Amino acid sequence: MTKTRTNRVLSLLTAFVLVLSLSSFFCISTAFAAKDGDWVYTVTDRKATITGYTGYDKAIVIPDIVGGYVVTSVAGIYPSGTSKTRITSVKFGDRIKEIAPSLFDGCSNLKTVTLPASLEKIGNAAFQGCESLANITIPSSVKEIGINTFRECTSLATANLSCKATEIPDGLFLDCSSLVSVTLPTGCTRIGSSAFSGCSKLSKINIPDIVTEIGSSAFNECSSISGDIALPSSLVTLGDAAYANCSRITKFIVPNKVSTVGSNAFHNCSSLKYVYFGKSVSKIGDSAFRGCSSIQKLFFGGSYVKLNGVFDYDSIPSVYYPSTYSTEWSNYSGTKTKYTATTSVTVSGNKTLAAGSSMTVKATAKPANSLVGDLYYFSSSDPSVATVNANGVVTALKGGKVTITATSITGKSGSITISTLPKKVTGLKATSATANSVNLTWNASSGVAGYYVYRSTSATTGFKKVATVATNSYTDKGLTKGTKYYYSIRAYVKSGSNTLQSDLCASKGITATSPAPSSVKATKSSSGVAKISWAKCVGAEGYQVAYSTSANGTYKSAGYVKSGSTLSAKKSGLTAGKTYYFKVRSYITVNGKKVYSAFSTTVRVKV
Questions:
Q1: Residues near 301 by Cβ (< 8 Å), separated by ≥ 6?
Q2: How far apart are CA 57 and CA 86, in angstroms?
Q3: In 3D, which of 277, 293, 191 has the Cα closest to residue 242?
Q4: When comparing pLDDT for 109 and 1, which is higher?
Q5: Residue 383's pLDDT is what?
Q6: How far apart are CA 527 and CA 367, in angstroms?
């Protein structure tokens, strides 16, 4: 019996040890709650989530480490919503990836928010009702923004959403009545329902050409948006009341991919005079033009569209349609005029464009006398390479190839293919590595395949390619001592079988000689005597020491060291108690003349 009990105990101990071992080996998930100072948090899989704050600071700095654990998300601040009104500013730790829904909802005195470059997700209504928040910048790292995130932030004037999010969610800026300027993500494909509804001061917004959906009431009551509005050429869905109550817009251009225009889409656009509909529009919703008291003309690119219940009875515009659809449009009882449809479109312009630059392409229609022959929808085959606006202005963003297409209201199109060249390299620096080699570095360019390195003995001509590198540095070896060389760099990208290169950057000159000394130090040797030392320079035949009584003053020679292996010198005859500044350069001898390196960094010493 005793033996059996002993065996059981041993078995249990063995199992317990085994579980501990497996937990360690396989990193079995553990979770617990804890407190670190004023911060309450939970830990799961060794990642911390802030769940509460018990302090009383108005300016909150959310840490990125609590209890030794990295904070990756924030799920709660105050346990009671009534305490939120105390907060005036918040700064998030540098490793936080997620902000929970409604985290600062109702923080009416919150004026400034600093979001981290690590952030990826912002939850629904996270900053809803932050009435004092004046501006917001969403980091480029953010992939998802929740609905109503900034709803009723009535003091919000500017918002920069240059991030990775692919949609502007429903209600994002709903009733942000002070919003004047907003930058949308370049990869945005959807603008959600009521996203900007009630933004009465928003006067201009550049909608990315790849947007396919504008949701219901998206721009309702954006009464400061004015002039001509060309909707993005990729647009497919235009929701109900999308631009209702936009009282200063005078013209809309609805692109070819839209088939249905939502009910009340332009309701109460009291300054609206002209609307152009692409060929695919087949349905216009009820009351789309109710309250459009200035409406005069509607231009259609395709077949008959029923317009019953679309206008006010006393504001019925004239309709214009292609002559090819005369039979279909005979069903329309109002004033109508047929026009000669465009039969072909050509696009002209430069076929190369440097990244960061813009140009305007020109579209030409035949026949030239067509009533809508000067109206086109411009589109880009790859907006990540180059974008194009409604006026044909093409802006290159990076190196590559892109096709810009102009499509007439009747569906005819023409295009031009443009090679976009990488941006010119900047920040080229050249330093001596040895008496026969030079180190080159420059600012890295984004989105390029590599770089070509060029060299010449002239500052302006005769550059020849000496290397192809993948990174932003290169060491050029085998140089002739004492000769001055000039370097320049091109960035390049691959586009199919083609290589597209940037222009040569500004050249940088350097003489092939020994490098400038490093690790220079100056110490007091004795009263009025300074000792200067430095690290050995490869290939140096000697060194010159210079000194001055001020860092930016005139330097005098303190003498030469005529051996490349002697790495220190003393300067005597100095005024005791005074501060002096020293720097050192190395040299080689070419044809009996000294060829110097650049000077070292300056050091100082009080003697």
A1: 256, 276, 277, 278, 279, 281, 322, 341, 372, 408, 409, 410, 411
A2: 8
A3: 191
A4: 109
A5: 87
A6: 94
